[in-house]
Prior knowledge:
Blueprint: H1 2-10, H2 12-23, H3 27-55, H4 68-85, H5 92-111, H6 115-136
Amino acid sequence: MGLILVPLVEKAAENLTAVDEAWDNQMNFALAHVLGATIQTALLNGPLVVIVGWGLHKAMSQDLNFEIFNAVILILAIVVAGNFLRDGKSNYLEGALLVLIYIIIAIAAFNYPNPKAAAASTSMGAEAGSHKLRALR
């Protein structure tokens, strides 16, 4: 849910401003509002989390270990958005396709299994099986 709702709520005002600017055919300003704020957030939040973690003496090795799914989705989103923005023009079809891609990423992320939960349930299942074998002996 955080992958889907947090960006929408966090950037709602900037997104509305960008839509208004795109409606007025000021694509450079619209792109600056959307992409500039997103890049600033990405370049600030990652290092900030690490610095705060150091200050609180929290280990960051497990939390910053991104899965291959997250990395592939990020790279694909960057490539797709870059291809749409290459010509500097926009129309309703490109906007609809970007919204469709956002929905596809949201559905894929929602249905992607949590490997930590799967590993925990597998180990719990193995422990339960060993307890049953001990009871049979």
